[in-house]
């Protein structure tokens, strides 16, 4: 037992050694070190402290944030030659992320992503902008001991009117008792009761930054929404899994004759109606509250010229991948059953565990099995503010199919 008033000696640097396979992954730029890849650890690690990873020759390999309670033990911040991780380093890392977005958006788009997690060198952390409100979302508890430091840096660099903290579900239970914080906490600026309004390509949308999915809106579908607008003139549009109507608002501005939003959530559909009102759109707008698979399977007489299928992830883990591919095939088959002759299908997936190749193949196969003939207009991935730097970060994909007029395949 130490004497009263004695100063505890600082702990030695947390040092780790890993398997040969993990060494190779880290050298290739992968940002995660899993628990089963650890070979040696000099002492128990504390949440959020810097862990230094050495190779088999005792040379520096990487440094990252340690999480003793996660299967991902280290979220890598830097690999290669040793660097001092100090205040100047953190500021430079933020500045590089901000610089990547310079020139991407004009005054008509005030909602986008400033930091995209591992792909911007901030593993398990995203920062989204909604007009003057910024939303900081954490996916790993390793950032919680550094929350004040990170928030202060963001405030100094970007000077937002408001900074809101969002926590992934797995963090919410322990954040209050262990770290004195909570989900939907306003870290900086005035309190917020409802949603904030931002612009995207000149359209106005609500973002429920306190309680909404992700950080309040699906910013990653911006470019696909723009494409749907260009395809919408004169078309009857079905937006399945519509959430708050982003695709529908764009289609209406693009000249759709009418738009139908289909979602199981009354709250989401009410948001879609408010977004239509925000933009004073005159296009006929219908909302249908129903489970999408059931409605598509039952309302077979309803036909549309443009069908958008943008479901939530069907595969939260690798074990669900095969089932997800089957679900996508079924959904596309159902959606094509509502597609009028000469119509366009837009099928999207946000399941990281289903690759783009697997998803596109499932859609093409389902289309071929209808006996109808389709031209593939294009496929898309993630927008530039959601750029991906390692395999697991590639999650968003979409494919556009248009039926050829006048015949079967």
How many β-strand stretches? 20
Helix content: 25-40%
- The low-confidence runs, each spanning 5 or more residues with pLDDT under 50, are none
Order of helices and strands: EHEEEEEHEEEHEHEEEHEHEHEHEHEHEE
Mean pLDDT equals: 94
CATH topology of the largest domain: Rossmann fold
Structural class: alpha/beta
- Rg, alpha carbons: 24 Å
Top-tier CATH class of the largest domain:
Alpha Beta
Alpha plus pi helix count = 10
| Terminus-to-terminus distance | 82 Å
Write out the strand line-up for the largest beta sheet, numbering strands in chain order: 16-15-14-17-18-20-19
Q: What is the domain total for the residues? A: 3
Strand content: 25-35%
For the record, the CATH architecture of the largest domain stands as 3-Layer(aba) Sandwich
Any overview of this molecule?
This protein has 409 residues and is of the alpha/beta class. It has three domains: 14-79, PUA domain (Archaeosine Trna-guanine Transglycosylase, Chain: A, domain 4, Roll), CATH 2.30.130; 87-196, RNA methyltransferase domain (HRMD) like (Transcription Regulator spoIIAA); 218-408, 3-Layer(aba) Sandwich (Rossmann fold). It contains ten helices and 20 strands. The strands form four sheets. A seven-stranded mixed β-sheet has the order 16-15-14-17-18-20-19, sandwiched between helices. It has a six-stranded mixed β-sheet with strand order 2-6-5-4-1-3. β17 (304-309), α9 and β18 (339-349) form a beta-alpha-beta unit. α5 (222-231) packs parallel to α6 and α9 runs parallel beside α10 (356-369). The chain is globular and about 75 Å long. The mean pLDDT is 94.
């Amino acid at each position: 037992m130490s004497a009263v008033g004695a100063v505890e000696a600082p702990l030695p640097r947390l040092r780790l050694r890993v398997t040969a396979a993990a060494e190779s992954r880290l050298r290739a730029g992968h940002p995660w070190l899993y628990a089963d890849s650890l070979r040696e650890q000099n002492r128990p690690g504390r949440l959020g402290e810097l862990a230094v990873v050495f190779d088999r020759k005792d040379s520096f390999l990487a440094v990252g944030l340690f999480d003793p309670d996660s299967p991902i033990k280290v979220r890598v911040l830097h690999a290669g030659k040793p660097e001092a991780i100090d205040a100047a380093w953190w500021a430079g890392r933020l500045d590089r992320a901000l610089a990547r977005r310079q020139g991407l958006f004009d005054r008509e788009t005030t909602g986008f992503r400033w930091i995209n997690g591992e792909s911007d060198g901030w593993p398990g952390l995203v920062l989204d902008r909604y007009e003057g409100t910024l939303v900081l979302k954490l996916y790993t508890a390793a950032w919680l001991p550094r929350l004040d430091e990170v928030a202060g840096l963001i405030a100094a660099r970007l000077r937002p009117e408001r900074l809101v903290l969002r926590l992934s579900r797995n963090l919410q239970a322990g954040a209050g008792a262990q770290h004195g914080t909570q989900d939907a906490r306003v870290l900086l600026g005035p309190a917020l009761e409802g949603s904030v309004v931002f612009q995207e390509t000149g359209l106005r949308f609500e973002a429920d930054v306190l309680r909404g999915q992700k950080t309040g809106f699906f910013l990653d579908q911006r470019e696909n929404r723009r494409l749907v607008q260009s395809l919408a003139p004169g078309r009857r549009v079905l937006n399945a899994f519509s959430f708050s109507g982003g695709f529908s608002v764009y289609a209406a501005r693009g000249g759709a004759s009418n738009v139908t939003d289909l979602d199981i959530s009354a709250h989401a559909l009410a948001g879609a109606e408010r977004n239509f009102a925000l933009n004073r759109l005159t296009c006929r707008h219908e909302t249908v509250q129903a489970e999408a698979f059931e409605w598509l399977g039952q309302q077979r007489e309803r036909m549309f010229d443009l069908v958008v299928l943008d479901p939530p992830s069907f595969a939260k883990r690798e074990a669900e991948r095969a089932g997800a591919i089957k679900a996508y095939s079924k959904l596309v088959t159902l959606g094509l059953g509502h597609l009028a002759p000469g119509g366009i299908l837009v099928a999207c997936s946000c399941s990281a565990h289903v690759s783009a190749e697997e998803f596109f193949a499932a859609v093409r196969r389902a289309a071929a099995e209808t006996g109808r003939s389709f031209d593939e207009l294009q496929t898309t991935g993630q927008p530039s503010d959601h750029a991906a730097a390692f395999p697991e970060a590639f999650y968003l994909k979409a494919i556009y199919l248009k039926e050829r007029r006048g015949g079967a395949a």
